[in-house]
């Protein structure tokens, strides 16, 4: 079937199988490689994307369901001020070890800060509860998100 | 609904957070999926004629973001907040949680405790059934093949009523309940005018514990009475041993969680 949807701000048309997931569509057909396949059952969050602005697991979304909707990945968000600040903080705080969870973490953190510019540590932890880091680098990830939020509020 | 009635091996799908992993493991074989997620008319939370009515494709995030649910039905709000991750809550729906009919479905105990009914529709019929009757057995709902759950509703709890939800899992977040419990208490003065208690993951389907409710009705509520009622709750459940927990542990937790839920529901009653 032919699908039409907005990918990172631009309307695209592409072919997809009825039973294909958004994750496979993005990675295999469209070459969007920041979206990672981890568990494939919605536990690990490595495949997190924004669907109409809200974080979802792309492994649990069937491709036909994104018809007419907006999908955003790290490729499209990397130059937004909030994401730039997050990326910088992740690098500075050592919040990246193997890096596999990083794109999903950044998307969840971006969604949090877009909604709540001044989250508490508990709110940060809840926001990334659906993103597993098997290097268990959570302490620095949480710190980086809090640092980015401070800087964005100009409280450096 | 016409599609559901005419297609072979068709299954409705809402958020897909339960169904897609199951289809991948070929535990569920489906020829056609009918997407309900795109039906905007099924996604609503509204007050109408003294009821709160919630459309089937309302997401768990919608429930968490609703000040109406938070203020009038805290048990339901707490249950939705406890479920999955942000990503799952953005996709998972109230109708999906009920229709997948997991005995551990977190929205079932609070809805049962709130006395909720589910609207079941087919092409030419509509009926309301108590939420507990949506559940037929583990992962089996009671709907006919051509029926859909389209909404749930419950009476807006009056002043003097309180509700609460409790859950224990293997970890703090993003976890399946080993046991979950919800309680609803309505007071008149210090006397209990109405009470409902429901527990999940302790039987083949979520249980409403009418015998335990009966011990509260018409009585003066106290910590001692709640202690006694929660003892009774743990006797009424019939959990199984499985990979997640033993039956003995689930019985113990049934007592602990029903006590906590009753105490918090009671403290929430503004008289």
Describe the structure.
The complex is a heterodimer of chains A (156) and B (271). Chain A has 2 domains: 2-75, Ubiquitin-like (UB roll); 78-152, DNA polymerase, domain 1 (Orthogonal Bundle), CATH 1.10.150.120. Helices cover 38% and strands 15% of the residues of chain A. Chain A is built from 6 helices and 5 strands. Chain A has helices spanning 22-29, 74-77, 81-92, 102-115, 121-127, 138-152, and strands at 2-7, 10-15, 48-51, 54-57, 70-72. Chain A has a 5-stranded mixed beta sheet with strand order 2-1-5-3-4. The model of chain A has no long low-confidence stretch (mean pLDDT 96). Chain B has 271 residues and is an alpha+beta fold. Chain B is built from 11 helices and 13 strands. Chain B has helices at 2-6, 19-24, 60-65, 67-72, 74-81, 86-91, 94-99, 108-113, 210-216, 223-236, 247-268, and strands spanning 10-13, 32-35, 45-48, 51-55, 117-122, 125-130, 135-137, 140-141, 148-155, 161-168, 179-188, 191-200, 207-208. In chain B, helix 2 links the parallel strand 1 and strand 2 (32-35). The longest helix of chain B is centred in the C-terminal third of the chain and has 22 residues, at 247-268. Chain B is globular and about 55 Å long. Chains A and B meet through strand 4 and helix 5 of A and helix 2 and helix 6 of B.
CATH topology of the largest domain in chain A: DNA polymerase, domain 1
The number of domains of chain A is 2
Q: Which percent range describes the beta-strand content of chain B?
A: 25-35%
User: How are the strands of the largest sheet of chain B arranged?
Assistant: 3-4-9-5-6
What's the SSE pattern of chain A? EEHEEEHHHHH
Shape of chain A: globular
Broad structural category of chain A: alpha+beta
CATH-defined fold name of the largest domain in chain B: Uridine Diphospho-n-acetylenolpyruvylglucosamine Reductase, domain 3
Low-confidence stretches of chain B: none
Ranges of chain A with pLDDT <50 over ≥5 residues? none
The CATH class of the largest domain in chain B turns out to be Alpha Beta
CATH homologous superfamily name of the largest domain in chain A? Answer: [2Fe-2S]-binding domain
- Report how far apart the termini of chain A are: 50 Å
Distance between the termini of chain B: 45 Å
Q: How would you state the average pLDDT of chain B, rounded?
A: 93
Name the helix and strand elements of chain B from N-terminus to C-terminus, one letter apiece.
Answer: HEHEEEHHHHHHEEEEEEEEEHHH
Number of DSSP strand runs of chain A:
5
Classify the helix fraction of chain B into a percent range: 25-40%
The helix tally of chain A amounts to: 6
- The total domain count of chain B is 2
